[in-house]
Amino acid sequence: MAKLKIKEIAEAKGISMSKLHRSADITYRTIRLIYGDPYRDINLSTLEKIARALGVSICDLIEEQPQEDTKPDI
């Protein structure tokens, strides 16, 4: 499962949600939704805009999380 690290990177760079939405040219609502749920699906074009606004690679915005096995061990 992939987790978005947008909130963490923006905070580390001192970039607020308002500044990020303006710099990336995406809606504030979209940024708020991403901050609230870092596991949500987003369009690649949105991810590219955010990466450009933060001055990082798209790869820096994604962190792979190990997926827990939901089957019980027998």
Topology summary:
Blueprint: E1 2-4, H1 6-12, H2 17-24, H3 28-36, H4 44-54, E2 62-64
Arithmetic mean of pLDDT: 92
Number of strands: 2
First and last CA, distance: 24 Å
CATH superfamily: lambda repressor-like DNA-binding domains
Shape: globular
Helix content: 40-55%
Q: So, CATH architecture?
A: Orthogonal Bundle
Number of helices: 4
Spatially, the strands of the biggest sheet line up as: 1-2
Q: Stretches where pLDDT falls below 50 for ≥5 residues?
A: none
> How is the biggest beta sheet arranged?
2 strands, antiparallel
| Top CATH class | Mainly Alpha
The CATH topology turns out to be: 434 Repressor (Amino-terminal Domain)
Report the sheet-strand fraction.
Answer: 5-15%
Cα Rg: 14 Å
SSE arrangement, N to C: EHHHHE
If you had to describe this structure to a student in words, what would you say it looks like?
It comes from Reticulibacter mediterranei. Residues 6-61 form the HTH cro/C1-type domain. This is HTH cro/C1-type domain-containing protein. GO terms for molecular function: DNA binding. By secondary structure, the protein is mainly alpha-helical. The chain has one domain: 434 Repressor (Amino-terminal Domain) (Orthogonal Bundle). Helices cover 47% and strands 8% of the residues. It is built from four helices and two strands; from the N terminus they run βααααβ. A two-stranded antiparallel sheet has the order 1-2. α2 (17-24) crosses α3 (28-36) and α2 (17-24) crosses α4 (44-54). It starts with a strand and ends in a 10-residue tail after the last strand.
